Amino acid sequence: MGLGRQIESFLDDRFDTETARGFVDKQAHKRLPPNTGWFHVFGSLSLLLFVSQTITGILLLIYYRPTPEAAHESIQYITAEVYFGWLYRQIHAWGGTLMILAVVFHMVRTYFWGAYKKPRELTWVTGVLIFIGTITFGFTGYLLPWNQLAFWATTVGTESANKVPLIGSWLQYFLRGGDAVTGETLSRFFVVHVIILPWLFTGLVVVHLILMRLNNLATFERVGEEKPSPPEYGIPFFPVHVAKEGVVVVLLLAVLVTLSVLVPWEIGEPADPLSTPAHIKPEWYFLPSYQLLKYFEGPYGAIIGIFACSLPFFLLFLWPFLDRGKERHPKRRPLAVGFGLLGLLGALFLGYLGHISETEQTFFGKRYYIDLLGRPNEIVDDAGTSESKAH
Amino acid sequence: MMDISEPSTRRGFLDWLIAACSSVAGAALVIPGLVYLWPAAKGGAAENVEVEGASDMSPGQARTIQIAGKAVIVVRKRSEYRAFLAACTHLGCLVTWDSSRNEFLCPCHAAVFDENGEVVSGPPPSPLPRYQIKEVGGKVYVSAA
Q1: pLDDT (tens digit, 9 = 90+) per residue, A8-47?
Q2: Does the beta-carbon distance from B125 to A278 stay under 8 Å?
Q3: Model confidence over A280-299: pLDDT tens digits?
Q4: C-alpha angle A158/B37/A293, rounded to 5°?
Q5: Interface of B with A (CB under 8 A)
Q6: Nearest C-alpha of chain B: how many angstroms from A274?
Q7: pLDDT in tens, A92-139
Q8: Contact yes or no for B64 and A275 at CB 8 A
Q9: pLDDT tens for residues A228-241?
Q10: Average of pLDDT values for A49-68?
């Protein structure tokens, strides 16, 4: 008897393995609705990136030192000295960015497919929590290399917390572990990034997956009128959908390694608490909020700004309970689709404005200085002509 | 009137008692944990901190130092020194001193403060908080106002 059979027989003698086997079989051969396609791989892609982040994160932890004196140096050591350290650092940094993209695409697909509607409201709510968790991973992880950009982006980011009504200054003090961004902040962010968030996130993902399997994937049928797919029409989870995900895994690994090699993240200068570099901007996923906050100044403006930045998240949470229509197909939900597109384009536009603000740009042959609020001001030379015309 | 001999009532009371005791025990475990997370005050003295090498500064020159964990910018004018919290009141970036314009500039969102720390332009909602300066025996000391 082979070793595999021996282990199986050992387990059979002691546990009800038949039930477990039946469960796994049922899950593996479950039929997915016929409309399940390539757009449905973003969920698995997000999960895969989380696994990749966990593995590369554990590897980085072996050499990383979370103190202001040693953090930056340890990142340099990982990059320059440790075997394949540069690769794991780059895959971790790029993986974080791609994970946020994958989660956003997954949410966009779910929104436009109307898959958040009854009975999948809680699956959506756990998904929104996962989205917030992913962003928090990005925010807390960004500080860990303790370089100038990270230090000052965190200073600006935590300063924004000060604008929250009533509890703002307490919240900022608590987040920073004191008045300013210091080693205390680094310790706090480190613990949240490597201990608290991973456990919370794992729990959320497990609940999300259980809910998803219990309700199966949504079809385009109206709410309450979904019929179980007969086996001849449904798509087998295994091997058909799993094969699609296999293709995505290979592509993802290719993209991660390519980005890591061709567009590596800089280590940057070590943090200097006594000198702010010019034009600090947050990571791309915070740019829409960063830009939006600029339009609300003054004591009341700041409160309205915080409210305006929080509103999209509240709407995301509540959306399945606000949109009670029975239709799922995007063509039959013009209002929800229009609203979603407006939100998406608004975020992209604000993000772009945030990206180009306080820089010089050329549009249609003319040079402009884009001010803080994103307004273009044509740059005119002494002769009274646009700079580009003078050349 | 409550009939304590009634089994369901007695059971209800015991349920309530167990829930109350569990809550108290839970709070006794959780509250110290939450308090532990609150940052303990530290950062050293914020009074009469000497500005090292202040006498070497020429008029118009500025130096950023740390006092109790906060960045403070000290500017030497012709006959006096001035000190302000260097963190811009907008989003906390550190201002620099432009001696040719007699103004503080914020590198993040182009805010400008005058030599008294008052907002000239840009998004900051309030002036730069001022620190007190004391000159004793040729040495310069800074204290939080």
Answers
A1: 999 999 999 999 999 888 888 888 888 888 999 999 999 9
A2: no
A3: 889 999 999 999 988 887 66
A4: 15
A5: 37-39, 41-43, 64-66, 68-71, 87, 91-94, 106-110, 122-123, 125
A6: 6
A7: 999 999 999 999 999 999 999 999 999 999 999 999 999 999 999 999
A8: yes
A9: 767 677 888 888 88
A10: 97
| CATH number for the segment(s) A33-276 | 1.20.810.10
Alpha helices in chain A (DSSP H): 3-14, 17-28, 42-61, 71-80, 85-112, 121-143, 148-161, 168-176, 183-191, 197-215, 242-262, 287-294, 298-322, 334-356, 387-390
The domain spans of chain A are: 1-29, 33-276, 359-391
- Please answer yes or no on whether A372 and B93 come within 8 Å at the CB atom: no
Q: Could you report the predicted ipTM of this complex, rounded to two decimals?
A: 0.82
**The two structure tokens encoding residue A184:** 């205390």
Selected residue of A274, A304, A306, A372 to mutate for chain B interface (largest B Cβ count, 10 A): A274
Angle between helix axes A42-61 and A85-112 (nearest 10 degrees) is: 150
Task: Single out the residue of A41, A42, A45, A29 nearest to residue A229, CA to CA.
Answer: A29
Which single residue is written with the structure tokens 């809680």?
A122
Inter-chain CB proximity A179 and B125 less than 8 Å? no
